[in-house]
Amino acid sequence: MSLKTRLLPLFLGLFTATAAAAAARDCGPQALGVAREIVIDGGQRLALGLETYPRTLALADHEVVLTFDDGPVAGPTDQVLDALKAECARATFFLIGRHAAEAPALVRRIIADGHNAGYHSYSHPARTLRLMSDESARVDIDKGIAAVDAAGFGAAGPAPRTPFFRFPGFADTPELVSWLEDRSIAVFGADLWASDWQEMTPQAELALVMSRLEAARKGIVLFHDPRGSTARMMPQFLRALKERGFRLVHLVPGRGPTPIEEAKPGWRSATEAIIAKTLGPKGQRREPQEGRGVKTNDASPR
A GO CC term (predicted)? Predict the structure, then answer.
């Protein structure tokens, strides 16, 4: 990997930090804000998030990382960004490439507001990347990376601008994870989710995600910014985090070390059980991993 390619995430992290510092001056102590940042070094071959992988970020008690999938979509994504800006909060957005191409102004706003514009494939295939050929899946991933970077920065560069990727439906394969890790792209799952792919009121969603956070006490949280219930709930959610003593941690790409915490003994993958139920035997991961198995009967994440 060239020196220019390795330094690109560092320069992007400095740009994001500068933008966020400018925005933070507009917020007072009543805002949630960002308590600290964690540097994500994809060179460590990271696959993180306890719902899928047996390791996650080493967060302190009551520390939370906010992530959003499937955007950007005009309307609800704007509402989510407005809510985050009002609280000087920052998050990581895993964007679908075709959505980014349709709404480049939203991608540029995500970046200008100090958030990360990560990747979530180009097409978010209904049959999942796992059920595609390895070659076709790689093409879809690279096309998504190029679309997001073109929308956000005017052109795709020699390497991903923000080397963070999340598999649609968490349906990875060992080969694709290894391929991304070889390119120093960090793979993210989640530690808990809001289940906002299900129909519910904003009040019900708020109660559900806060109950899960109170039980877990920390973690990488997954939302979907195109969901109307999530967009309407977000101001209340951010205020609830502040009121209940949770602190926001923001991710920035750069040189590590990235602090990692291994899963507790007896860990089992929640997402593999869901994927097996959704896709059947053909959707089973071809290479077994230690500790994978049944953990929850929650409906499938998207």
Answer: membrane
271 is a domain residue:
no
Question: 190 in a domain, yes or no?
Answer: yes
Within a domain: 283: no
Q: What is the DSSP string of 85-116?
A: HHTT---EEEE-HHHHHH-HHHHHHHHHTT-E
Mean pLDDT, the chain, as a whole number? 90
Report how far residue 144's alpha carbon sits from residue 124's, in angstroms, rounded to the nearest whole number.
9
Cα separation, 279 vs 284, in Å, equals 8
pLDDT in tens, 100-122: 999 999 999 999 999 999 999 99
For the chain, the farthest-separated pair of C-alpha atoms sits apart, in whole angstroms, at: 53
What does the alpha-carbon distance between residue 214 and residue 207 come to, in Å, rounded to a whole number? 10
The pTM of the whole model exceeds 0.85: yes
Cα 115 to Cα 12, 42, 88, 295, distances in angstroms: 11, 18, 11, 31
Question: Is position 272 within any domain?
Answer: no
Structural domain total, the chain: 1
Domain that holds residue 69: 3-265
What is the full DSSP assignment across 10-64? HHHHHHHHHHHHHHHTT--TTS----EEEEE-GGG--EE-TTTSSEEE-PPTTEE
- List the CATH number of the domain containing 158: 3.20.20.370
